[in-house]
């Protein structure tokens, strides 16, 4: 098969591993910078051009679209879908996951466990919002933040009010969530492919830090997850329409709660912690499904 990997940096670990895994299994893999793609949007013969030439047809596309280029990246991915190319994660599913508020609303509607979460627009409503969430400590998150950036833990109601008002003053959209203290600064990253959790790792924040992201200095280790955690991760990915997802779960006193669903989960941490060939499993999933041309979300809002 001819497989296109949409990635801006061919030197990234995840990109290199996907190229390696595809090549080892006899496929032709090409890394394509999504921002260098440009499109002829025509109903009779949609095409994609890349660096001065028509890109041609591919059997499958693996989107590794960074959060900062979601708008343009998903537009290119939609063009591949118009050309009847199999996409490992579809454009609609990626945009659902990238919009944190929309993502949480979709999961809540289907009964997935979540931290108590609030969203408001007016500074006049901040005090009642904090009261509605049960008061501090609260975690304040930028809707557009990634890798733990734009996430603040506030220990008092006054601090929460100040941080929320500051973000609002910058015209930034934020979520306020209860702080799951019993999680102890740790979360579980469940790597979902299809309808299975193929690997899981525990991410522990460094001392004095509550964010467990590996980019923030957190550590990763192998973990055994419960059937309920496994089911929660698979259902969360399915609700959003993602074939591949990193589902981040906190262990709370009232069961597993989903903190975030990542549509382009990194491979380095999970492969190192578990010793599993996650990239190879992703290529195998494409082999089983690319010929079917089945869409879980295409055409849906």
Fold topology:
Layout: E1 2-6, H1 13-24, E2 28-32, E3 37-40, E4 47-50, E5 53-54, E6 60-63, H2 70-82, E7 86-87, H3 91-98, H4 100-109, E8 117-118, H5 126-132, E9 138-142, E10 151-154, H6 157-169, E11 174-178, E12 186-193, E13 196-204, E14 219-222, H7 227-240, E15 244-252, E16 255-262, H8 268-274, H9 278-289
Parallel strand pairs: 1-2, 1-6, 6-7
Antiparallel strand pairs: 3-4, 4-5, 8-11, 9-10, 9-11, 12-13, 12-15, 13-14, 15-16
Helix pairs in contact: 1-9, 2-3
Structure in words:
- This protein is of the alpha+beta class and 301 residues long.
- It folds into 3 domains: 2-96, 3-Layer(aba) Sandwich (Rossmann fold), CATH 3.40.50; 117-179, 2-Layer Sandwich (Dna Ligase, domain 1); 182-287, D-amino Acid Aminotransferase, Chain A, domain 1.
- It is 32% helix and 27% strand.
- It contains 9 helices and 16 strands.
- It has helices at 13-24, 70-82, 91-98, 100-109, 126-132, 157-169, 227-240, 268-274, 278-289; strands spanning 2-6, 28-32, 37-40, 47-50, 53-54, 60-63, 86-87, 117-118, 138-142, 151-154, 174-178, 186-193, 196-204, 219-222, 244-252, 255-262.
- Helix 1 (13-24) links the parallel strand 1 and strand 2.
- Helix 1 (13-24) crosses helix 9 (278-289) and helix 2 (70-82) runs antiparallel to helix 3.
